[in-house]
Write a structure and sequence with these properties.
alpha/beta, Rossmann fold, two-stranded antiparallel ribbon, 8-stranded mixed β-sheet, globular
């Protein structure tokens, strides 16, 4: 497999040692998730480290912990962190999320877990999702997130659209309220495949928005360009 890195404006991602490739899902979450206050961030299932690096670029004074269970992905992300100018902000732990132990409470928790990541908004294998949820299911992901989140913090996820209702119901059982929703469409006529969700312990009026990625093939919408222009080289 090629060792040529995926180049972003301020960092690069090697991805030859892991199945977790740079894809739309990770870029969307890394560009969309917001840190409202504080400086501690947790990235659950970091894969290549893409989202952690994006957040380090966006929020300069933060301390970011990344957790990855897969050994090869852990090594790849560690290398990507150490090769970046944001290295001092980043720490990585080889662990399942269930076994991850810390005394910290985080101001922002993000997750695009391996069982949700595909390389585009069309290629979605539900059998793969079901198999991989055996490693970290919704209940475990949300329960652990709630236990590590600051009382004023937020948690952001990107998940398949058809799983959003059950995901939100599980979050509610863990005292997490839905604050923001971003519905994601590949183009104007394509069905909804993904949704970004932001939760916190605070009751707020829910903000709902829709993002369309392309007007035509490889012709990106103004909204998508605005969201990702600080990262993609050609945006």
């Amino acid at each position: 497999m090629s060792k040529k890195p995926f180049l972003f404006k301020q960092f690069e991602i090697l991805q030859d040692k892991t199945a977790m490739k740079v894809g739309t899902d990770g870029v969307l979450l890394g560009a969309w998730a917001n840190l409202y206050k504080g400086k501690s961030i947790l990235d659950v299932g970091t894969g290549t480290g893409l989202i952690s690096l994006m957040l380090a670029q966006r929020f300069k004074d933060t301390e970011i912990d990344a957790v990855e269970i897969d050994h090869d992905a852990y090594l790849q992300a560690k290398y990507n962190f150490e090769s970046s100018s944001f290295y001092s902000q980043l720490s990585i732990y080889e662990s399942s999320f269930q076994d991850f132990s810390t005394s910290k409470k985080y101001d922002l928790i993000v997750s695009n877990p391996p069982f949700f990541t595909v390389n585009n908004l069309v290629d979605f294998d539900q059998r793969k999702q079901a198999r991989q949820q055996e490693t970290l299911n919704f209940e475990e992901l949300i329960h652990k997130t709630a236990s590590l989140l600051n009382e004023t913090g937020s948690a952001c996820f990107i998940i398949p659209y058809d799983q959003s209702i059950i995901f939100t119901e599980i979050a509610s059982k863990n005292e997490l309220k839905l604050n923001k929703t971003l519905y994601v469409k590949g183009n104007n006529t394509s069905p909804l495949k993904r949704v970004c969700l932001e939760f916190s312990f605070q009751e707020k009026e829910t903000i709902e928005e829709t993002l369309i990625i392309e007007e035509e093939r490889h012709q990106y919408t103004k909204d998508y360009i605005e969201l990702t222009k600080d990262f993609y080289l050609k945006m």
